């Protein structure tokens, strides 16, 4: 029998979309001009201040400051990660992830754990504990409350965004 020499090729829409979307990297310059973007930058700058003020002391001798360090560094790194995601508009390339829910959970947990860490930080600062590190710990406590308020603001904006998505 004679064989047919035709070859049929098919292309999936997934690979076509993947190659088209990965060829250019989007950059959202306007995000930093929004209130959530400004709050995020403030969280990064002041969060860095919180953990560097504690890291410059003998915090490891006191478990309470270890908790504050964990929360401050953990959410500092994650906030930088989310800032990169928002600035590069990566969330538009991964539509399978419910970004509004992820943002709400992230900001809500950051607010709650930072509030606990700020209270622990403030209640652990005494001159009797270590007068040499008193000023650094007191300053870190103040900035921890400021960062907490920033996360509270972003939690509010995340909730508004999440609610508008769920009502549609």
TrEMBL record:
It is found in: Membrane. It is a multi-pass membrane protein. The chain crosses the membrane at residues 35-54, 60-85, 97-117, 137-159. The keyword Nucleotide-binding does not apply. GO terms for biological process: myelination. Keywords: Membrane, Transmembrane, Transmembrane helix. GO terms for molecular function: structural constituent of myelin sheath. This is CKLF8 protein. It comes from Tricholaema leucomelas.
């Amino acid at each position: 029998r004679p064989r047919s020499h035709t070859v049929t090729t098919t292309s999936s829409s997934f690979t076509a979309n993947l190659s088209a979307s990965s060829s250019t990297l989007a950059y959202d310059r306007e995000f930093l001009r929004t209130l959530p973007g400004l709050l995020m930058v403030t969280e990064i700058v002041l969060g860095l201040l919180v953990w560097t003020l504690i890291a410059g002391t003998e915090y490891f001798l006191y478990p309470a400051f270890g908790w504050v360090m964990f929360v401050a560094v953990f959410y500092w790194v994650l906030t930088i990660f989310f800032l990169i995601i928002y600035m590069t508009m990566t969330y538009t390339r991964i539509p399978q992830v419910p970004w509004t829910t992820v943002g709400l959970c992230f900001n809500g947990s950051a607010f709650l754990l930072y509030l606990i860490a700020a209270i622990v930080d403030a209640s652990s600062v005494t001159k009797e504990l270590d007068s040499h590190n008193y000023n650094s710990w007191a300053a870190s406590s103040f900035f921890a409350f400021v960062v907490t308020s920033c996360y509270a603001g972003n939690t509010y904006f995340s909730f508004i965004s999440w609610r508008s998505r769920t009502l549609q």
